Amino acid sequence: MAKTEVIVMAGIAFSVGLLLGLVVHLPGVSSPLKRGDGGKAGHPSIEADIRRLVSARFPGTGTDNVTGRLTGNQRPGIDLFHRTRFGPAGVSAGGNYTDTRRNATHWNETSGSDDTVFSRIIVDGVFWSNEIEAMAPDRFSDADVARWRRKTEAARVVTLDAGCGMMQNRHLVFDDATHACARYRINADQIQGDVFSFYLSRLLGVGHVPPAVLATTKRRRHLWSGVDSQLVAAQWSSGRAFVLTPWVPGLEPAFIPPDLRRDNRTLHPTPAAMENKTHGELVELLQWSDLIVFDYLTANVDRVVNNMFNKQWNDHMMDSPTHNLERSAPSGLLVFLDNESGLFHSYRLLDKYAHYHDSLLGSLCVFRRQTALRVQTLYRDGDVGTKLVELFENHEPLHSEIPTIPAENMQMLHRRLGDVHRQILKCQRTFHS
């Protein structure tokens, strides 16, 4: 081969390589993900998949996970994988709220007119401002979810003992000292409720539900071989799927905000309701607005509704800790635990508990903008159940181990989305000037 031809061919090869390199790094063009990068091989990350499934734009937030911080205010991150003792309670005796997390300055003590102060809290009539969202603690992110899946698929279990709730649930420790909770249930719909509620929280952008993955002791058997005797004592079936969630450290009891404890409860976007709140109280209410929407959609009966129902026997139930809700002492994040009743068993109980759900939703007239837009989009598209199943099947390798969502449950979820959407519209008509 002539020297000139070699030079020409080398130049062509270089050009092709350069072109391929540019294509790979162009925005929106990427190679398939490897297993463990947040999705299946050839599938996008869960967050990218959600953007595809929920096509609405979310103005005013910039990203799906609000991670802004106050200047000079360093918030400890949430360590998903190390167990600590519970932190000191952030409430006084009797369940009265005390702001121990951040600057307790009231908004009406800051400079500016009343209108200026209120506009820093509520925008467009019914939405929390970017400033309030930026003060909120980091939620469970797509990276947290991907990291947890990698952890559960690779780490050996070295300890399995009682804990993480009643019956056959177990607290476990991996070989790198990571702690976790295994939620084992005989009834399939409790496993369905837990894992599908988690995927619904991702679809809604409500990042308060800890990562949840399905597991069985027969899959990757070598990872469980060190606790064979404990598995026998727990009376687990090797073929039954259960849910693995991270142990979240530093949790303390969470209490219902005073605005929502009384019978004539309201969380409305008015100066009278907002301007006397501390920064910490406003951040807490921001998170509660997402909780009310999420629990209404899943019809969860094991959280706030539990307190409301038991008030008939105990007048102080609304001042007691909220069932299945904890607060991270380091960051102030509300953590929505034990969602196993959601979407399945809870839907069968609506005849008995619907008026409690209606009361909570009817009290709410201030929303996280992203949550409201996702509700609007999912309801408009009319296929939230299909999207939820698709998200679950794309990102859960063991999806075939549990039944899918029945059509009637999908229809109920769509109807309840409509209820939330209409409540948002009603609030906009009432408060948007």
From TrEMBL:
Annotated Gene Ontology cellular component terms: extracellular space
Alphabetical GO biological process terms: cell-cell signaling
Entry keyword Transmembrane helix: yes
Keywords linked to the UniProt accession: Membrane, Transmembrane, Transmembrane helix
Residues passing through the membrane, by range: 6-26
Record protein name field: Uncharacterized protein
Source organism per UniProt: Ridgeia piscesae
